[in-house]
Design brief:
Length: about 475
């Protein structure tokens, strides 16, 4: 009976989802659905209620829906889908510890979900129609389906024969089947085949939240990983082997000294060309100064992270008197942090000259995410944490940052900044940003897009409501009245 309740719940949940989302845009409906879904997960899977990762991901999922209700733009919607899939994957495998594993786990369980759904349907049929279980149940069902098929085929054959041989019988059947045919056509006009496929897809997707899966090999492997760097015991077979670690220490020490010196020169150069304000005057030089220079510097920071991960991958964490190596590593991390700030200043300067775009905001986002990695790299070195710890913490830090990014309306930030700094590009606003930014496009350049936008938003169902579409339409109407 438990399976019957679960299947009924899935049917009801899928119907509710379709009622909220069918032919609607994402808006307040996402908030309603997320609250109901989180509540149902906590009711149906009580063993997950006290798991910190489930709590945090439920909160992240909720926050992402708030971002959709506020902004309603593509970026916020993308973050919403990302958070929903992550939350789904962890409800399937609560032992997952790496965020990128969530996507892989989802793909693994997708195929299993189809099989489990079919089994669930079979159990429900068996419970409802075959209460007394027998060993030959499958044979009985198969025989019944065979009998029904034979009878159906005989009925169709003789029905066609009689309608072609007897005109009165054909007219009688037409009087019965024409209304039935009209009724079927009415149903298919109201509910299209794609809607049925969509409903089945939602049913499968929703079932992935509630079906119970066995822990995958991936999650089992992650559970076995330690956050603490373990010292490897090596058997010393010769004096040469006993000097191996010391030689490695010297190699890494000199490598980081040289790289620190090189990076110091780069940072001093940035002080004179970026921080003090000496910048190239030629537009081509300025583009290279920002674009090519920025990408190269970001790439160098990532390489620096890789070098330090290799340096502190093993027993160098435990060698005596490795304090100097750690100090040099901290200096290098701080210098890379300074380098990130120099890149940010380059980007700020370019924005002040040429305006704000998604690409330039993306640079800031990437700098923040890279900064998160540098922080956890320093913690890993200080506390002798493992590579797995660094990856795990960095990935979840990046995930949290992306969730927060989804709360901002970047389209309006771009359009408003460019408007107030007299750098508005009407074509960029119209074709690269959301229609919410049309308020910042001159009237004679809107190409009637504002009228279509107001009509579209005004005619929406309340389930598709988001705050900034509402605000933008009010501003356009106010402008029209004035």
């Amino acid at each position: 009976m438990k399976n019957v309740k679960l299947f009924a719940g899935l049917l009801a949940g899928s119907s509710l989802y379709c009622l909220l989302m069918w032919y609607q845009e994402l808006g307040i409906n996402t908030l309603i659905f997320s609250v109901l879904l989180i509540g149902m997960i906590y009711l149906y899977k009580p063993e997950q209620r006290n798991l910190p990762i489930v709590k945090w991901l439920a909160l992240a999922f909720f926050v992402s829906t708030v971002g959709v209700v506020i902004n309603g733009n593509i970026f916020s919607k993308s973050i919403y889908y990302m958070s929903m899939l992550t939350f789904l994957s962890v409800t399937q495998s609560p032992k997952l510890r790496l965020w990128p594993s969530a996507g892989l786990s989802f793909l693994i369980h997708w195929g299993k979900g189809i099989v489990l759904d079919l089994r669930l349907l079979g159990d429900v049929i068996q419970t409802l129609f075959y209460k007394n279980k027998t060993k030959n149940l499958k044979n009985r069902i198969g025989n019944k389906l065979l009998r029904i098929s034979i009878i159906g085929m005989l009925f169709i054959i003789f029905f066609l024969i009689f309608t072609s041989a007897n005109q009165q019988f054909r007219h009688l059947c037409e009087g019965i089947f024409i209304p039935l045919n009209n009724f079927i056509e009415l149903i298919f006009k109201t509910i299209k085949p794609f809607d049925i496929i969509h409903y089945l897809f939602v049913l499968l997707f929703l079932s992935l939240f509630f079906l119970r899966f066995q822990e995958s090999t991936l999650s089992k492997w992650e559970v076995e990983q330690s956050d603490i760097q373990l010292r490897k015991k090596e058997k010393l077979v010769s004096d040469y082997m006993s000097m191996g670690l010391k030689e490695e220490y010297k190699t890494q020490w000199w490598s980081i000294v040289i790289l620190n010196a090189l990076l110091l020169v780069v940072n001093l150069t940035d002080v004179s060309t970026v921080w003090i304000g000496i910048t190239p005057e030629d537009p081509g030089d300025l583009s290279h100064f920002v674009h090519t220079g920025t990408y190269s510097l970001i790439f160098s920071v990532l390489i620096s992270v890789g070098v330090l991960l290799i340096t502190f991958r093993g027993n160098l964490n435990f060698i005596r008197n490795n304090r100097q190596l750690k100090i040099l590593s901290y200096i290098w991390i701080y210098q890379n942090g300074f380098l990130l700030m120099s890149v940010a200043l380059r980007n700020i300067f370019y924005i002040s000259e040429w305006g704000l775009t998604y690409k330039r905001i993306g640079v800031f986002m990437f700098l923040i995410l890279t900064g998160i990695m540098l922080v956890y790299l320093a913690i890993k070195i200080k506390n002798r944490q493992s590579f797995f710890y660094f990856i795990r913490k960095s990935m979840w830090g990046i995930y949290a940052a992306l969730i927060l990014f989804g709360l901002f309306n970047w389209d309006l930030m771009i359009a408003s900044y460019n408007h107030f700094h007299n750098q508005t590009d009407a074509n960029y606003n119209k074709y690269q940003l959301s229609d919410q930014t049309l308020i910042y496009v001159p009237l004679n350049q809107r190409d009637n897009l504002d009228t279509n936008y107001r009509q579209r938003v005004t005619n929406r169902h309340w389930l598709s409501f988001n705050w900034f579409d509402y605000w933008a339409v009010k501003q356009l109407e106010k402008e029209k009245r004035n």
